[in-house]
Design brief:
The protein is 42% helix and 13% strand. The protein is α/β, with parallel strands linked by helices.
């Protein structure tokens, strides 16, 4: 039996709760693009998942441990019902939570995720790895510097995460992304990789989830393809589908105002 741990949580706002779940690598702070905009209307909780950020552990764990931790968090907070918002890995965990207790979650907001995740990332060269390190270092010193983006960022692995090589997503990366990457533990890497190697696939179970859902994807995403996200949206009985052109896996950082406006409109319609 999995023993839940107490997760570090970023809290904002008041009102009906929304549990906001980050991706891999990630942290609760990386979800500020959502929580800051949602907090005037909702109570947001953005935990650092087990093995990420400030929720570090010393022992390996399975993916199921995330679900146990999150259910324990909601119980401690006295939250009987809440919306779920999940980005990438966070979207997978949102679906897992909903499959376990569908009555507890009146709606799902899923960002760049899939119940049968598939990618098409090209091979990685040594130059790309070097350029990624240089781009990240310079971006931490001077966030959103266009010269760095043009010279190193657009030739690094970051170009697969960020399709629009513009300052805005790089500023978010400097604010939250780099720190989240550095604080993602080897146990977190292992848990996710093990699940993917075992062929994670929950598509057949999704018809059980009859609550309203919103799926948002980036057309140029190579980490979890738009086709994989579309497949998940089609399997959910009541899912609105939106695919943004010229965006990739970090689309909430590429077009934050458009994504947040869509989410707020959807929440207003389903609250």
């Amino acid at each position: 039996m999995i023993q839940p741990i107490s997760l570090h949580v970023e809290r904002q706002g008041q009102g009906f709760p929304i549990l906001c779940l980050h991706g891999h690598p990630g942290s609760g702070q990386a979800m500020e693009v959502f929580t800051t905009a949602l907090a005037p209307h909702y109570r947001t909780l953005a935990p650092d998942l087990r093995g990420y950020g400030h929720s570090q552990v010393r022992e390996p764990f399975p993916m199921a441990a995330h679900v146990a931790d999150l259910e324990a968090l909601l119980d401690r907070e006295g939250i009987e019902r809440c919306f779920l918002l999940g980005w990438s890995l966070g979207g997978i965990l949102a679906m897992e939570l909903a499959l376990r207790s569908p009555h507890r979650y009146p709606g799902l907001i899923l960002i760049a995720t899939a119940a049968r995740p598939r990618g098409k990332h090209p091979p990685v060269s040594g130059w790309e790895l070097a350029a990624t390190g240089i781009a990240a270092l310079l971006n931490s010193l001077k966030p959103g510097w266009q010269w760095n983006i043009n010279t190193f960022g657009g030739r690094s692995l970051l170009r697969h995460l960020i399709h629009q090589q513009q300052p805005t997503p790089y500023r978010y990366l400097a604010q939250s992304g780099t720190a989240a990457y550095l604080r993602t533990s080897r146990h977190a890497h292992r848990a996710l990789n093990t699940a993917l190697q075992q062929g994670y696939n929950r598509l057949a179970d999704l018809p059980q989830l009859t609550m309203p859902a919103l799926m948002v994807a980036g057309a140029e995403d190579v980490h979890i393809t738009a086709a994989a996200s579309r497949e998940t949206a089609a399997a959910l009985p009541h899912c609105d589908w939106h695919c943004f052109p010229n965006t990739a896996h970090l689309l909430p950082w590429e077009t934050p105002q458009t994504v947040i406006s869509l989410i707020l409109d959807w929440l207003t319609a389903h609250s």
